Amino acid sequence: MYIHLHFIYDIIIVYCVSAKSDFIGSGRKRPELFELTDNEVAEFRLTIPEVEFDDLKEQSK
Known about the structure:
Number of helices: 3
Strand content: under 5%
């Protein structure tokens, strides 16, 4: 009986997780988002003090 209840619990958890993993809301908006970002490359600008940058370079060797 314990194994049976555990199995049902696992099924419920998997169902809830898969139901919550809706990618970016409704299915209609998803293609529009990809059309807007097809030819775009993200640009990240990071600013850190020069001393920390030098430490980072030293640690990466």
